[in-house]
Amino acid sequence: YSFKTYANRWMFKHPSPEDFFRTMEDASAMDLDWFWRGWFYTTNVVDIGVQDVKKYYVTSKMNQEVKNMMNARGMKESDLPPLVYLVEEGSEDFEESMRTSTLDDVTTLKEYIMDNLSPEERSNLKKPNFFYEVTFEKVGKLPMPIIAEYTYSDGSSERITYPVQIWKTSDKSVGKVIASDKEIIKIVVDPDEETADIDTSNNSWPKRKKLGQFDSFKKNKVKN
Question: How many CB atoms within 10 Å of residue 169?
Answer without folding.
Answer: 9
